[in-house]
Structures
1.
Amino acid sequence: MKSLILSLLKIGGISLATIIFAVVIFYFWASSNGYPREKYDEVVSYRAATPGKKDEITVITYNIGYLSGLTNNKAVDRDKKLFDDNLKTVIDALKPLNADFIGLQEIDLYSKRSFKVNQVLQLAEELSFRQAGIAINWDKTYVPFPYFPFSAHFGRILSAQAVLSRYPIVNNKRIVLDKVESKPFFYNAFYLDRVAQVSEIKVNNRSLILINVHLEAFDAPTRRKQTEYIQKLLTEYVDKYPVLLVGDFNSTVPPIPENPEPTVDILLKTASIKSALPPEALNNPEIATFPSDKPEVKLDYIFYTPKNIEVIEWRIVDEVKQASDHLPVMVKFRFKD
């Protein structure tokens, strides 16, 4: 009897060790990075020419939601036609605006979920941009979001923020922001990096700093820390350069019960920058950017340094319809002498 018990314990121990080993192997495989690290902040060049000297410059910020439309973050089956149709809608809407820069969030490069298409390349070539600065923020083999169905978790996700530019990008830096401290390590291991992308762009012999961000969506304390970091980051540039700060700040204006203290207020109260959309107008639902089918709140902003940039025009680009769950913001400006 004693020998039987020992045999069972031995078998049980071996089985438990096997399970633990398998879990460890799966964890390291699933959370591994497949894209070359040296390309995480690369600058890619295309065949378009640099434009001549212009007095008016146009910038757009757009959370493109990897062209998944209103299905973003939903556990639904999608076909390639959805992505092709949404790409055409975006190109038709943005081409007439002839933007000089576009700051993009949630854009895919060779991801299973978007049929392994390099969306940065597609947009850059179709809209005749000279360069793209890339900031990879999701490079995983296994992504457990959304939680169901389980089968949807497998397959590489390679996603990024990107800056499309008609002018030379002379420097492109990727800064990973704070993770959610209240979440366990395995959650953060599979979660996307929240990134501040800092691109230095040469415009008519003048350096412009464009900071493209996508801040934490679900945890307000983390989003506040990230916003405070962005506020500090600005101090490195605002005294030396014209600066544009664009992106999805995931902070609602007007406030909502889930977000009663908008963290974007930190930036709205920062003296060195100014919202391109007048702060007094931000509560107006007519300039909301999310959700794109029935906009109720503003998550997407463009800030600028008023001492050396003058805003001429701004608007919400609703011509993109529901190609993403967000709507883009467009601002036309000129440099002050």
2.
Amino acid sequence: MEKITNRFTSIEQVAGKYLKTSGNAGKREYPPVSFEEVLREKQSEAASGLKFSKHASMRLQKRNISLTEDQNERLENGVLKAGEKGIRESLVMVDSLAFIVNVPNKTVVTAMEQTEAQSSIFTNIDGAVIM
């Protein structure tokens, strides 16, 4: 074993020298999100009771999709109807938007525009609601 004789100012320097790690290994880069955007998203989640997963939020942001109050209300109603029918993983269509929703958790797992859905095949769902 090699003796550590240098003086280091941080554990990262030691790890970088002796463990051969790179500083960016395993780090993902996400587009910057402002505090205002996060706050609005959290407020809308709290008001609606419907949550958006991190993945779904990133998809909406990346695709420049924003829901109107009417669309959000229809999405919530679609999730309620799916729950009444015993659906656990649902495709909810609102206008030209497609949402995969975990109904028991009231969580939108992913979101896309209908035109983006490759060959219109959705997997791992047990029901669909068209609003």
3.
Amino acid sequence: MDFSKFENRYKITGELIVLTALHIGSGKEEGNHDSPFMNIKLKEDKVYYIPGSSFRGYLSTKLERFLEEDNGFSLIDKETKERLNSADVKLIFGYTNLDQESSEKIKDRVAKKLGYDKVTDSIRSMAGRIHISDMKILSEVDSIKRDGIKIDRNTGATEKGAKFDYDILPSGTKFDFIMELENIEKYQMDLIALALKDIIEGDLFGGKLSRGIGKCKLEIKNVEYVDKTNLRNYIFSRKMNPMKKEEFLELKNIDLVIE
């Protein structure tokens, strides 16, 4: 696909619902808090959110696992009959330093999909075709503090007798979910739907999962799209066509082959 031209745009909205409890740490220690929950301060209040980059990382990791060469199975693009690999994750989520990070097989597929015989300077780095907005909290809740054992960040070992508090948000907390896709091919749509299936049914997400927290469920409410069939309505009135959620999640363009 020629990404310099407009082909399509999809917008998927819904809510991420916490089923057990959730911790998304800021990575910064504050007093007796080890990596408090991500938040911004508005006046006197803390407003909690999940960075869109965290959910992007969750999805890309899911796809990387499905496309591992040692899985004993392959995912195939039904239209081209080609085997998919980690290059297809990079083509959706973007990448940097392709030469340094990737095998020849991955580089060859990236180049081929972008219409080149080999990797050139113009495709060594590329922005992704997926954007996930920071997920604002929808529920009116306060964070809950839990006790833990403090870790020395230099040695990785526990500090004797030292404790810390960490923030969790309780079961039932909801976050706003907005994902947008641009110039996505049919088989890539299937890959995104495949990556979403676990968390739609309920999956572990976030930090401190070994402590029995992090079970979340994504509830998709609306799927909308624009392509060349309804481009006029979109350009002049910003109207997108609705798509049934079931149609979006149906894997019609990829196949699985047991090896």
